[in-house]
Amino acid sequence: MKVLVPVKRVVDANVKIRVKPDKSGVDLTNVKMTVNPFCEIAIEEAVRMKEAGTATEVVAVAVGVSACQEQLRTCLALGADRAVLIETDVDIQPLGVATALKALQEKEQADIILFGKQSIDGDNGQTGQMFAALTGMPQGTFASEVTIENGKAYVTREVDGGLQKISTSLPVVITTDLRLNEPRYASLPNIMKAKKKQMDIFTPEELGVDVTPTLEVLSVEPPPVRAAGIKVESVEELVDKLKNEAKVIP
Amino acid sequence: MSTLVVAEHDNAELKPVTLVVVAAASAIGGDIDILVAGGGCSAVADEAAKIVCVSKVLLADNDAYTHQLAENIAPLVAELGAGYTHVLAAHTTTGKNFLPRVAATLGVAQISDIIGVDSPDTFKRPFYAGNAIATVKSSDAIKVVSVRGTAYDGVAAEGGSAAIEAVTSVHDAGLSSFISEEIAKLERPELTAASIIISGGRGMQSGENFKLLEGIADKLGAAIGASRAAVDAGFVPNDMQVGQTGKIVAPDLYIAVGISGAIQHLAGMKDSKVIVAINKDGDAPIFQIADYGLVADLFQALPELEALL
């Protein structure tokens, strides 16, 4: 079984981002970029499927600028067999990514497509489900456990208030939640090996797709700043303030 | 201009977040219809018909929709939604699951997790864990939008008298089936609906110690939350997580205990009306946004707090 893992290049989760003074966007110059954490969980799950003998090949794919090759190399070092970059300088949005991936899937014919549930920059949480819609595949979103058995996928999903178990036919789209696994670190020998692994680069035009966005970002602003309040000296003072000043407890 | 709101429910009751989505629809303007899709959910449609400013309730009552499987719900919403200028749903795990599928089926973008409506085609939404707010304009013919549960105050649940119309088309894709559900039995209010929340972080040191929060939560009628650090450490289950990738909450009172205040956590709770932080590290970033900060050892402060309430 072939597993396709779309990954996104994002700002490192530990970076405190700054909005540009002209409100045109977020300042990303000289900022550390990484594989989106949820996509890393997806890669890990795919590699574990291969180690367990469920999967035969793991292909990592990114849609974006040329520099995404760095993140794809990381995925190769983590255990992906080969990588594909669909290269574009367009500020691509989820529907565009899903459309480009659909064109790739027509070539790759993967059985399991493992997405992260959301990217920590865009916070859209759309791409996996959109890809599933465009390809007519079932989806197991926000997965905390995945089993592939007898030609079916069994997915435990993290839903508001608890867990839901579903089964789906294959091929299937899975999107990963936090508790699915804990990703490994790439070892130095694997980082070296990754440099020699195959990476193909296509443009959206070569795949015959249009990835022009339909959403225009008019402005980007920092959120309203919440001012710090006061420090209280004791629990008594805290309870008194909450009762008599903030009036939020009886 | 007309909006289709997809109701959130459990086949028995309408979820209050639907009222918030209707409020967002009112901010857009035009007629508002509500779709209630489920199995044996006519009571929900009756409830939806009473919501103010709703013109019509569409009831799609079929076994295929009982468990809100995205493969079945999305084509239904896309088919009906094609007749509207806007399709709205809540940005909950249910809405997040099926709505992007609707948007892609209609061949349009989705605007996720909006916190405000500037005009019928322009919306405000947070991204980068709430560290930036984008104003986004859509050029699509149909705007597919998910609404943050804390974006608006919900409209009145009573006062309307909309007609209920049955939807006959059935979409059963046969791609997926429901097996089971484990919904935690809550003796306390749900996180997203609670007016008081007390959350624990890594400083709690163990799942066992979350009991210290329970006594206080019981006295205040509060929900209990957690930071991602506490979930990652295995103290508590993921559905208690408040933050960028967990639940977004805005209660009247949020008490953060042993939580340092990573930006990802702040993204989930900084719109709370009053924030209290209890942490032994006086330099913890949580104090920068707390209305009331108490620098103290939580293992001493919590029993004291419980005794004083």
Word description of this protein:
The complex is a heterodimer of chains A (250) and B (309). Chain A starts with a strand and ends in a 5-residue tail after the last helix. Chain A is an alpha/beta fold and 250 residues long. In chain A, helix 2 crosses helix 5 and helix 3 crosses helix 4. In chain A, 27% of the residues lie in helices and 32% in strands. Chain A contains six helices and 15 strands. Chain A has a single domain, classed as 3-Layer(aba) Sandwich (Rossmann fold). In chain A, the strands form three sheets. In chain A, strands 11-10-9-12-8-1-6-7-13 form a nine-stranded mixed β-sheet, with helices on both faces. In chain B, strand 12, helix 5 and strand 13 form a beta-alpha-beta unit. Chain B has eight helices and 16 strands. The longest helix of chain B has 14 residues. Chain B is α/β, with parallel strands linked by helices and 309 residues long. The interface between A and B is large, with 80 and 92 residues.
List the helices and strands and how they pair.
The complex is a heterodimer of chains A (250) and B (309).
Chain A: E1 2-7, E2 9-11, E3 18-19, E4 26-27, E5 33-35, H1 37-51, E6 57-64, H2 68-78, E7 82-87, H3 94-108, E8 112-116, H4 127-135, E9 139-149, E10 152-159, E11 162-169, E12 172-176, H5 188-194, E13 199-202, E14 215-221, E15 230-232, H6 235-245
Helix pairs in contact in A: 2-5, 3-4
Chain B: E1 2-6, H1 17-28, E2 31-38, H2 42-49, E3 56-61, H3 70-81, E4 86-90, H4 93-106, E5 110-114, E6 116-119, E7 122-127, E8 132-138, E9 143-147, E10 163-166, E11 176-183, E12 196-200, H5 211-220, E13 223-226, H6 228-232, E14 253-257, H7 263-269, E15 274-279, E16 292-295, H8 298-308
